[in-house]
Design goal:
The chain is an alpha/beta fold. Helices cover about 45% and strands about 15% of the residues.
Amino acid sequence: MGSAEQGRQEERAGDILLPRGIGARILSALASAVLRSQRAHDEESWQHGCRRGYEDGWKKGNHAGYTLGLEKGLEKGQEVGALVGHQQGLSEGIEAGKRIIELRPGRAVQAQGPQVDHNLFANWRFPITPEVEREIRDRVAEHLSGQEPTDDQWKMIFSRDPSTCIVAGAGSGKSTTMVLRLLVLHKYLGIPKERIAVVTFTRESRKDFRRKLAEVFALWGVTLTEEVTGRIVRTFHSRILDFIRCSQPHAKVTAFEFFSISNTEDEEGNEVENALDIRLTTEQLDLMNAAYQHVYETNETFQGLIAQLVRASAKPLPLSPNSAEARKRVGRILDCSKRDEELTDAVDRLWRAAGAWPIEGIEAGPFPVTLKGLTFFANGYCEELKAYVILGVGSNDRKLCLQSMPWMKLTGATTMKKTLFQVYCDKGILFLDNYAEGVATLDALRGYVRKCPKFEYELEGELGEAPVMQAFHSTASFLENLGLDVTDAVRNMSFTQKSTDAIFFHALAIFWPAFNDYLASQSPPIFTFNKMFEMFGERGAANLEQLPDEIFMPMLHLLVDEFQDCGANTISWLRAVFREARHRGLSVTTDTAVYPASLMAVGDDWQSIYGWRGSSPKFFENFESYFPSPSTTHVLMKENYRSQQMVIDAAESLVQSITTNKDKHGIAAHPKVKDLAFPVQVLDRDDNQLADLVEQHFDKGQTVLVLYRKNDTKKEVRIKLSSILAKARKLKRASSIKLLTYHGSKGLEADAVLLVGDCAQMSTSPHRNMAYEQARLGEPGDPAPYDTAQGQETLRLAYVAITRAKRHCYWFVELAKPAKGGLVSALARVRFQHPYFEDLRNR
């Protein structure tokens, strides 16, 4: 309240308060009132005086009241104002105090720069709005009625994050889902077809995906020609070719792996049949042999190492009867002795027919040799080297068999014979396996230097001997697939003092860089795919910097199928490409949005079965650590549209103990099989019963897969199935019955699947363990990380084989034997107390 107003109120209340001076005036007024009532005064003067007195009195009273009111009002106002002000100030002070930090002297903090952003992708999102979602769902229901995606599949299709990791279990229907994802990117978000890429591993899977892509896009009115789908869907290998050709002055630079396929520029000429196949063709071997001869002639150290390997191969060290290799064969020494005369004669005739026998300096036999009281035969004797000569079988005759024993291949028989001579022969022995190079081998043994010898060598842990060029190639490829440099990897290995593998790897470390140089010197230049990935991977980041933007743009939005099959070299390349794309700020700009790079990885760690060639499920299991992103969508697709539930449960029971994702479990979803309940039947090996089952299912109009672990099994089974296979061909249903290895069945399916043989780990490998440790693919402290990984892969391989079945799965097995040396057996992991396995063996 203001002071003047308080004063006026004090004035109006003056007759009550009676302050000083006011009482006299009141008495005067009373006296005047009495005089007026008695008319005892001059009217005019009285009236004038009254008015003047009233005016003066009002003014003086007003002034006095104002002054008094001001004093009292100020005093009272200060009291009330102080209280209100205190309360308001307290409230506002508390709120202000929350926002104000009192600055006090503190400890000195050293200035630091900003954090480094190690993400391979920018912080952005695909603008897939709820309206867009509704429209897509409506159109899918219209065009793909009955095939609408599940909730998990929709989550994949509508992923908004720059990186997405999809765990798509066996039979999860991922192909259509991937196509719908591409449809969203192109049709609804406007990303050009030229900026969308899909990577597959085989030509067959590429062909199937291209067909489905064109079919689904057509339903939305988008026409994709074969040329367009061919540019969208490619293999890793054809894409890295773009990088190498862009970097080289010669446009026709080619890949070593394509050397025998095509040197033309057609689209199929840029695709290998199967990127996981590392076998060599004749043309490729010719290149390797030319480089081999050049290094042999120009490098004395290499020449000496090869001589040592030849001696180790041709004059093998004695074997103990208790060694693992000997124990597998010495028990059959009697059978080997009975057939050895026929074997010796058959091999002798092959060498003579090839013009490679007899060899100068070797007296031709046969010469009888006694091993453990039994008679065997040597093909010849070399006086200069004081050694018996045993001839082997050339690489072109590996499928030949003994005439009296059609099931016994000459290679298997000669391998057993070699082992028995190593164990029981106390005289010098030479083994010549390659009759085309027998003379060169003998020259190397004598110390003569004319032509580099071709010979076979068996690395410890491998499943058999291989021509030295094949051994060099497969070993180097394995190391490079792990992301290792061959020379560096060998330098970091260690072997026992008497190990001939140390000699092999020393020779490999010299040969492999020289081989790559030899290829690069050709006109036009040739490179291995691994060399290309290395050149443009993380170790070759400087090479990527020299490439134009346009080489990166087709891969800016990438979808990788079968991601679990990637090796470290392809992972390194992808990481380097996305890092460089982000560094350059590359993006796709449409009329409505800007789209930086993105990656969608689709795979199944339970179907990772190519560890022997360098792939590992760790890249998929730890996806975010290898492809860091501000945000990543994870999807687990559980529905299985192939198999009935018991097949799913049986297969999963073998891999549950090694899984990193405990929530992973397949659910039968196909309406035709989801209510079926046929357990996986385990039976004794009986090829007659197997043939009967194949025919029963074939006659019902069903498809059949017969799968085997070892190639030797195929011939035995095919003989039993000959009549039904002929029947299938006659009825033009040959494709209804297929015989494949467990590995070869990946990606296929059938109503009935018949497995032949246990899925067991076959060996351990010292050099691969050392390579795995260098590549950091094992668990810390594991002394044998590759062996551990292979044991797990054995179980995953059994999972793959079983999950090919839609309805029925039969597993024919030999008499169970204890696993040796800790080797893993899938059959040993079967628990028959569960209803999804049924034991029908005779025990």
